[in-house]
């Protein structure tokens, strides 16, 4: 083994050692990813979790991303980074009676605090305004409504105001028909001052602006809509003019296969510079998600890399984003940002060496 690979292997060992650091409570230490009895047994960035189908008892598993901008820099184009994305970010089980599937457990402020930077929201006309609903037939109902969109958008505004170096992307499944309905709710929420302008969105596969430039210009909110007409009428970007996306739901969870969803062009269409990978079941089963968000998620990211013409995903959309056997969706993002930033299988290695090497890396 050459000197370069020996050094690289030491880096990876160090990265693994850091990720298995001890977590202490009341003078007693537990090893991260090993047994825990409660929240106090796990260090910051981890929580005590049980995944009966994956391991016995409870373990400290990851609950936060590695912030690639703080670990490395923000000097690359936006499309050279990857972002944790919460599918149906608003669909949270809060005890209210409704006939709608839930997909997340944390509030949106908690999701943002833990590193989610892509939020999938379903917007509808309802009760004279714009609401977030998990519904059907393009109509929102009392039993499918989760709340007014303005409330969630104000939470996002508060996050962007408090975190001036961060960028949030909203991916809207958009059923709003009211004239300028979306524009009004964004204006009322105070988010327009962060709006990334449509005219600056690259087409034909060009790179996006540098993240550092987007931050300097305060263009820190990117919004995509599924409604093609909104690009002309409200200057809200039509998602599939800029992004390719794999099949959502059960059709996107077949090992070794990564087909595009019907609305998207082929994943290897490089005239679209952003890649979104969905990995969640049509009807989520909480007990299964901790398995799905672990090695199978990483395997699918590799499959979709090939399907997308050797391009790594920029957005990874999952349900119940903190559930895993260990590193979960957070480790998957470390993989993506490592590959995008320096060709390494973990973003932490990029912080040590700008060049990578051919050494396998396992994900929990």
TrEMBL record:
Keyword Zinc-finger: no
Signal peptide range in chain numbering: 1-23
Alphabetical GO biological process terms: lipid metabolic process
Domain EGF-like: 28-61
CDD domains: PI-PLCc_At5g67130_like (cd08588)
GO MF: phosphoric diester hydrolase activity
Gene3D superfamilies: Phosphatidylinositol (PI) phosphodiesterase
UniProt xrefs under Pfam families: PI-PLC_cat
Keywords: Signal
Keyword Signal among record annotations: yes
Name of this protein: EGF-like domain-containing protein
Species: Rhamnella rubrinervis
């Amino acid at each position: 083994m050459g000197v370069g690979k020996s050094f690289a292997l030491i880096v990876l060992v160090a990265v693994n050692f850091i990720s298995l650091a001890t977590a202490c409570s009341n003078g007693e230490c537990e090893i991260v990813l090993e047994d825990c009895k409660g929240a106090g047994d796990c260090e910051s960035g981890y929580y005590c979790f049980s995944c009966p189908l994956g391991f016995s008892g409870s373990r400290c598993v990851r609950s936060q991303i590695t912030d690639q901008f703080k670990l490395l820099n923000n000097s690359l184009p936006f499309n050279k980074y990857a972002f944790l994305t919460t599918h149906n970010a608003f669909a949270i089980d809060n005890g209210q009676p409704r006939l709608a599937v839930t997909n997340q457990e944390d509030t949106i402020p908690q999701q943002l605090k833990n590193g989610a930077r892509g939020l999938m929201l379903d917007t509808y006309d309802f009760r004279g305004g714009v609401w977030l609903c998990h519904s059907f037939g393009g109509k929102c109902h009392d039993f499918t409504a989760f709340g007014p969109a303005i409330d969630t958008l104000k939470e996002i505004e508060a996050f962007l105001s408090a975190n001036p170096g961060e960028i949030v992307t909203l991916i809207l499944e958009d059923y709003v028909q009211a004239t300028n309905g979306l524009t009004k709710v964004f204006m009322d929420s105070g988010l327009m001052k962060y709006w990334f302008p449509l005219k600056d969105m690259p087409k034909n596969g060009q790179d996006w602006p540098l993240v550092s430039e987007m931050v300097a210009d305060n263009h820190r909110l990117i919004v995509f809509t599924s409604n093609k007409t909104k690009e002309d009428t409200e200057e809200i970007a039509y998602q599939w003019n800029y992004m390719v996306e794999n099949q959502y739901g059960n059709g996107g969870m077949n090992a070794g296969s990564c087909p595009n969803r019907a609305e998207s062009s082929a994943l290897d269409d490089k005239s679209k510079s952003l890649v979104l990978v969905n990995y969640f079941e049509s009807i989520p089963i909480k007990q299964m998600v901790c398995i799905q968000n672990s090695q199978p998620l990483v395997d699918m990211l590799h499959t979709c890399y090939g399907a997308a013409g050797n391009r790594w995903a920029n957005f990874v959309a999952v349900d119940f984003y903190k559930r895993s056997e260990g590193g979960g969706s957070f480790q998957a993002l470390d993989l993506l940002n490592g590959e995008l930033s320096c060709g390494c299988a973990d973003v932490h290695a990029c912080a040590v060496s700008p060049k990578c090497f051919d050494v396998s890396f396992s994900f929990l």
